[in-house]
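User: Okay, second chain of the day. Same drill as before: sequence in, structure tokens out.
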Amino acid sequence: MARNLDTRTKQTKHKKYILVRYGRMSTLGLFEHHETSILKVHTRVVIKTNRGLELGYLVGRFSSYKSGQFRLSHEQIKEYFNNDDVDFSQGTAGKFIRYATAADISEERHLRKIAREEMEYCKRFVKEMDLPMKIVDAEHVFGGERIIFYFMSDGRVDFRDLVKRIAQEYQTRIEMRQIGSRDEAKLLGDVESCGQQCCCQRFLKHLKPVNMRMAKMQKATLDPAKISGYCGRLKCCLRYEDQTYTDLKKKLPKKNTRVKTKHGQGKVVDTQILTQLVMVEYESGERIAVPVENIEIIPASASTKAEQEKTPKNNKQNKRKKKER
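Assistant: Same drill. Structure tokens below.
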């Protein structure tokens, strides 16, 4: 029994894996292989997943492999993509079959054309059955084991009859997957207002939520037409520098904080996050922008005491009279 456990441990330890991005939603996964070395060129690979045979792209081919073994852990992969919530299949996603050939690439192009026809066919059925759903895209898995339809809907949809009709037509397994507006942009988006390809298509693997606080903190225009992306939601790029802005903002004092500079004492009336400048208003009414490292925050107790000392004695006497009354 002990020998069997040792054998399994050694086998697992000596297994080799490659990292592959595959599918229309650009999922990442580790795939077991038996190659002695990994090609250091742009490489397409044929893999076996729980959906069947698929074509994918080899990831990290330049520096992440040693003697054919992928060297990064799950945590390092997430750090590599600078995203804690990267869409990454835990454990082994499947097996590496072979490097893709010209015939495989040609077959993939053929399947894409077929997928477009299948999508139009599905749209026609949806219209005939008056289902409250919008067919966005279709994916015909490379091995032909199934067809995946991506759709949008405001709520749940009973598409069982639709699946039966399509399965009868194509004699294969049908999968319906509901997606949101950001996923739609990931599937169909092209060029954004910046002139670059949509980030969700080019490199983003997990679409984190973006809120108006990020736009306000960066003092970007709040015009919806300018801060909304292809999907109609706030642009993902607003999130890129949010952590930097948040960290820099913590170094700045809040408004109305009493501070001391070489020009004297005053209060903070405004701050600039990126330049790390603090606008200080002095007792004379003059306003001067001072670098945050050149100011000294006056403790609340000290500032309160100073204000009380400046208060005329008549005011104090009046307050005492009111209390006596």
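The longest strand covers residues 88-99.

User: Thanks, on to the next one.
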